[in-house]
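Saturday, quiet lab. Running sequence design on the structure tokens for the scaffold JK sent over.
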């Protein structure tokens, strides 16, 4: 019984202190629609929004995802919005970009305050996604904005590739309370013996 309790506590505590999620859009990348990035955001594959029904269509991009939002193309601003229940758990967030039009890329926290940005341009077809935006997000995240309007307003969709996402999430407060209660119960049991 004691071993079972310790194993259960170890499993709970490993999840209580954070989890790292990554997304690298491997080839073929049709499975990305079932992974965390697609499941928790409104990001879309540019080629599908442009009318090609094949989610595995990468065009000329050997790595990463040509982004689009919703079902329209042609904007100088694209917001990739995250589900609020997921976004509230994010504590650090980073990803790489290849931008073929000059743009400001910003990350906003759960209260819609900008918490980090880069200006990206001069993408190359090596697709190394060298322009990296990385933030600490004590308040979680709500969205990523890609905005070319300050630089002439070039089309974002089909001209912006993202890759190498790395996110650290922390559990909801209820998980931490359960962990604390479990630790207190183990301590009390130990004292009784």
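Result came back. Writing it out in full:
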């Amino acid at each position: 019984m004691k071993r079972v309790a310790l194993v259960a506590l170890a499993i709970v505590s490993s999840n209580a202190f954070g989890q790292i999620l990554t997304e690298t859009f491997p080839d073929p990348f049709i499975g990305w629609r079932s992974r965390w990035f697609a499941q928790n955001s409104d990001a879309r594959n540019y080629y599908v929004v442009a009318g090609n029904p094949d989610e595995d269509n990468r065009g000329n991009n050997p790595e990463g995802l040509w982004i689009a939002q919703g079902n329209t193309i042609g904007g100088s601003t694209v917001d990739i919005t995250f589900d609020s229940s997921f976004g509230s758990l994010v504590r650090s967030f980073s990803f790489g970009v290849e931008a073929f039009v000059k743009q400001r890329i910003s990350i906003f926290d759960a209260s819609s305050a900008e918490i980090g940005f880069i200006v990206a341009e001069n993408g190359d077809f090596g697709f190394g996604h060298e322009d990296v935006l990385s933030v600490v997000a004590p308040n979680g995240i709500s969205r990523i904005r890609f905005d070319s309007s300050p630089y002439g307003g070039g089309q974002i969709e089909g001209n912006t590739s993202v890759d190498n996402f790395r996110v650290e999430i922390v559990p909801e407060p209820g998980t931490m309370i359960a962990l604390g209660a479990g630790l207190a119960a183990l301590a009390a049991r130990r004292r009784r013996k």
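Notes for JK: Helices lie at 2-16, 36-39, 46-49, 84-87, 173-192. Residues 1-18+172-193 form one domain. Ask whether to fix the surface positions before the next round.
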